[in-house]
Write a structure and sequence with these properties.
85 residues, mainly alpha, 38% helix
Length: 85
C-alpha cells in the first residue's frame, strides 16, 4: 500500500493531501483504502502536501487615480426637506 501511495503522490506532484490521494487511488488504480489509513501511512513515510496559499498584498495603495475630483467644493444648500413615501 505504501508503494501505491507513493506512486499517486508523485504522479500528482505532491499537491494533494490524504483525502485526494485516497480518491485518486480509487479512480486510477481501483483500490479502496480508508482515508484514515492513507493519512497514517503518509505520516509514517513523511509525505506532506504542498499547501498553496492565496497571496494577499499587505502594501498600502495610493489614492491617486481612484478618487474623483471634487467639482462641487461642498457649496450646495438644501432649501426644502424632501420626504419619500
Amino acid at each position: 500500500m505504501k508503494d501505491l501511495i507513493k506512486v499517486v503522490y508523485k504522479k500528482y506532484d505532491s499537491k494533494y493531501g490524504y483525502r485526494q490521494i485516497q480518491i485518486f487511488q480509487l479512480q486510477d488504480h481501483e483500490v479502496w483504502i480508508n482515508h484514515k489509513k492513507v493519512l497514517r501511512l503518509m505520516q509514517d513515510m513523511r509525505l506532506r502536501s504542498r499547501i498553496l496559499r492565496k497571496y494577499r498584498s499587505h502594501s498600502v495603495s495610493s489614492t491617486g487615480g481612484r478618487v474623483a475630483e471634487n467639482v462641487l467644493q461642498r457649496e450646495f444648500h438644501a432649501e426644502h426637506l424632501i420626504r419619500n413615501g
